[in-house]
């Protein structure tokens, strides 16, 4: 079991991109970080443990939830970061619904099933935070045509954020959606901002005080219209 004052976070989809950078930054602070991945992962300095985790697979998620309880007895922070299908090649009017299903399975249901599986450990944690890594692409306020699978899945993730925040508020668990901005990763492509800035936008929601906001949608610490 970890020392009682050690902070423990799980980051999903943490083998590359923003998830990897969030993992690096938390580990650099001295946190224990469970690097959730369905692939091989690069070595990260610090107290970083690879946790096999395919967020779209019920059995994988259930096994990860049990492993966290068995090994650590608790979890303080969950960052639901894994996502797929920024489908710039599609339009809603003739979208391939298989792609839409896949996006929902990972971007919405992935975050949902991981949250459910980690709640027993989170309920034993301290200063608990759930951060759903979302996107302004999921904002109904600014939504237009295009990227239908991605946009609809992120709008649904935002709705889930509201539901979980309300339900977990009595337990003191803060649940927020964080947009990292346009970031130069495999998903974002060239031209976006450095991955460190995207990760910082996510970490702002990790670092909220216990009386901080819950059920919000933020980028760089500022509210984003739903
Ligand atoms: P990325 O570079 O494409 O990385 C995505 C990560 O998710 C990878 O580690 C990938 O793992 C993982 N993943 C996908 N499906 C998974 C599954 N079923 N189980 C476990 N892991 C899975 O994307 P990114 O830019 O870092 O994006 C991170 C988050 O930021 C996402 O939620 C994204 O929607 C959001 N976001 C990004 C931008 C941007 O401009 N980049 C803008 C707004 C929001 P594999 O290597 O195994 O595929």
CATH architecture: 3-Layer(aba) Sandwich
Report on the biggest sheet: 8 strands, mixed
Low-confidence stretches: none
Q: What is the molecular shape? A: globular
Helix content: 25-40%
Total strands: the figure is: 8
Q: Tell me the count of domains.
A: 1
CATH topology: Rossmann fold
Compute the gyration radius: what is it? 16 Å
Count of helix runs: 5
By CATH reckoning, the class would read Alpha Beta
- What small ligands are held by the chains? NADP nicotinamide-adenine-dinucleotide phosphate
The helix/strand class is alpha/beta
Task: List the strand order in the largest sheet.
Answer: 3-2-1-4-5-6-7-8
Main features:
226 residues; alpha/beta; Rossmann fold; eight-stranded mixed sheet; 15% strand; binds NADP nicotinamide-adenine-dinucleotide phosphate
Task: Please provide a written account of the structure.
There is one protein chain. This protein is 38% helix and 15% strand. It has helices at 17-28, 58-72, 97-122, 148-168, 195-206; strands spanning 8-11, 32-37, 48-52, 77-80, 129-133, 174-178, 217-219, 222-223. Helix 1 (17-28) crosses helix 5, helix 2 runs parallel beside helix 3 and helix 3 (97-122) packs parallel to helix 4 (148-168). The protein has one domain: Rossmann fold (3-Layer(aba) Sandwich), CATH 3.40.50. Strands 3-2-1-4-5-6-7-8 form an eight-stranded mixed beta sheet, with helices on both faces. It is an alpha/beta fold and 226 residues long. The mean pLDDT is 97. It is built from five helices and eight strands. It is globular. It binds NADP nicotinamide-adenine-dinucleotide phosphate. Residues 12-13, 15-19, 38-39, 53-56, 81-84, 106, 110, 133, 135, 179-180, 182-183, 185-188, 192 line the site of NADP nicotinamide-adenine-dinucleotide phosphate.
């Amino acid at each position: 079991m970890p020392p009682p004052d050690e902070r423990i976070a799980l980051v999903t989809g943490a083998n590359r991109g923003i998830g990897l950078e969030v993992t690096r930054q938390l580990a650099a602070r001295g946190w224990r970080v469970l690097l959730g991945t369905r692939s091989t992962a690069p070595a990260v300095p610090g107290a970083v443990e690879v946790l096999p985790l395919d967020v779209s697979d019920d059995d994988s998620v259930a096994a990860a939830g049990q492993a966290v309880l068995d090994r650590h007895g608790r979890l303080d922070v969950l960052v639901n970061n894994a996502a797929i299908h920024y489908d710039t090649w599609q339009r809603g009017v003739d979208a391939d619904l298989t792609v839409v299903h896949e996006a929902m399975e990972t971007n919405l249901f992935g975050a949902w099933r991981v949250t459910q599986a980690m709640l027993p450990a989170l309920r034993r944690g301290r200063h608990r935070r759930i951060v759903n890594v979302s996107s302004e692409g999921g904002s109904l306020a600014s939504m237009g045509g295009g990227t239908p699978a991605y946009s609809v899945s992120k709008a649904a993730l935002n709705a889930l954020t509201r539901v979980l925040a309300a339900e977990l508020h009595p337990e003191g668990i803060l649940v927020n959606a964080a947009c990292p901005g346009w970031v130069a990763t495999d998903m974002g492509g060239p031209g976006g901002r450095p991955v460190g800035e995207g990760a910082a936008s996510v970490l702002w929601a990790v670092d909220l005080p216990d009386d901080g906001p819950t059920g919000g949608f933020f980028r760089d610490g500022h509210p984003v219209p739903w």
